[in-house]
Amino acid sequence: MPKSRSLNTSSFINIFTSLFTSIFTKNVLNLWLGFLLASATVLITLTYTNLEHNFHWWIDWYNRTLEIATAWENSPLAAWQIVQDSLVGDRNQLYTIPLVPFLLIFGKSRLAYQIGLSLVYLFPFSLVMGCLAAQIVTRQKRRFFWMAALITLLTPVTWMATFLGIPDTGGAVFIGLATLLYFQEINRSIPLNFLEPSLEFSLDKSLRFSLNNYKQIFFKYLPKLLGYWRIPMIGVSIAAAVMLRRHFAYGGVALLGAIGLQQIIDIALVSRKSWQRGIRNVISKGFQSYTIIFTCLFTLENTAPVFTNQALDTNYNNLYSSWSLPILTITRHYIELLGIVPWLLAISGFISIYGNSYLNHQQQKKVNIVIFSGVISLGIWLVKLRYGNIFYLLHVIPFVVVGMTLLLANIEYQFNQKWRSFLVSIILSFLAANLVMGFTDIGDSKQHLRSGFALGVPPIVRDDYDEVVRLIGYLRSIATKQEPIYVVGYQRLHLSPSLINSGEKFLYGRDQQILNVLSLPQADSQDYYPLEQLIQAEYVVMPSNLGEYLGDFANFPANGEWLPPTEYDVVKVAFYAFVQNWLITQDFKELPTKFQLQGDTNVKIYQRIRPTSLKNIIKTVAAIQGEIPELPGSQLPWISISDWLYSTTVFADSKANHTLAVFPTDTSKPWTRSFLYLSPPKGTVKITGNVNFYYPFCQSVTFRFRLFNQQGELMGATNSQEFTKATSWQFSLFRDLADSNEKTYLVLETLPRYKDKQLVNSCGFWLNNVKVSSRND
Description:
By secondary structure, the protein is of the alpha+beta class. The protein has 25 helices and 18 strands.
């Protein structure tokens, strides 16, 4: 017996060793190629990042990862709680989970973060593209898998999300995985149908439904039943992409549209032969689509319900309309970003397969999916959305990579060895040169030869780096008590609040950050009048120009956030206030220290010398409305005009009703919290609402309404009234119809309350369901 055991053990070891050796020998080349490609990915990322000399404006993604890594060191549970809490926002922190180990192992530098992005998201994206190509080109599968992965990394725009420090390639990975899952589903092309004629046995009915027949049916179709897991996983993959980056919802729409179009073609072809089978196909494929959509929404709703509901309720097309460029401009931009020749190579690849026989019916379906999803994506981004950010091109990279791979495959199959080697070498050499051109500013962008290559997006090097350092240091020296700072500007490559904010984090660290840079409106369609921030600002950073985009991306850094000049009036209006010496500027004095930034931009600092009066506030809002007559996208009719930062807020209960909140303070100084209502109705104005308090010990609040014209002259007022908690209230105010064509502004003033000769400031309150209407309503 011991001898037998020894022989069995020896045999088992020999079999296992032989099997392992066989598997390793077959995959050693794949391992080496993968290692080389991953190493090249890291090396290029390190080189590009080290050549930058800039305050990275996408640094919030890095800092949010840094937050999780720091929390993880103290408590993994606390880190996970931060991630969970972030799921309510548009930009959650799920993407940080696989990146945290890189910061813990290699240090908490941005360089370690960039390495993590490249290995966790960018490199896997290239592998997924290789898998898609290998599913289509099945002859010499390994060769074309690595060819497609290489083409992905030879395409410059593929890298830009990583270089900007954002995890967008992660979303692209999941859209690619969803596509791959559907490709595998196409391989299982025989429909599951228990009623097909082949299952009708020639025996009598009593035998047809016998237990043995059911066993045969069950075991015959069990593998197919188990294989249907791919359909719901497609929906889960799309949901994961959306969770990582919201704009991949459009990638999911493009893929679902492509699947739907291919299903329509399949149904039409089947229906021509048999209408019964056509009906069964309609039901089967309709159920597939329903399952994908259901599992996607189910995953989103159960993972991030607040985010999902907000996303479904928000009209992002209107919210981000300021970012939409003219169709011709955005089309030219997309051509320039990728390059004319790469576009032609991709399109030629799809054209070359028609009329050739090396693709079977299933492979042709997969090609159709790629074409349909690519065309739908281009339609979404070039016709409907028209956003110019470079990372949105990730949505069409699968179309480009598969197209080029098909071209190389066609050359492989159609030409002899001599021509094959020559043509493949020419194409790969061009793509390598294209990568270099895409990472540098070699050549004049207006030359015809240069336009064949990708638009150069070199590492950003600020010529005014030291001057920005001096500016940030000066602001830290004068705003030592976190006084609010208003930074005029919108373009992060020029001057903006985020430049100062991210620059201070980079220079001094998150824990040593002291500057209170106000969050400011940047785009008309998604923002609001900057009145509240102008009133609260203690310092204003004012450039001599705003660095406007003039319509040609070839003359501007492609990785900026350029808006058409007509779409950032909410920024320009503050600029005009100081350039044109509006009345509000008399509340500030110019400081002697100046700064010289790139683009011939002189920067001045203004310091507040007195609070802005109510009359001055009204004249300022009238001047702002003169410059921006149409309300910005997020502007509510009520505006807080208190000079205490974060002491009040306004939010909408419904289209007509609003809540005005006044927060408790710990100051002993007398205070007034005021709100301004834009364009009250003509005639007698009726204002209704109710009062609620933050704390039960609060007893009452006193307030009144006053009506002003645009010159700040008083036109009418109500008496001050005191209201207790949970009390409904109503005011009426007459507006003279003789002045009906003149702009008017309604001001609500909450008044201080004394108790035992002490000012009660801790009694914050809400004015709920505040509604302004005409007396006749």
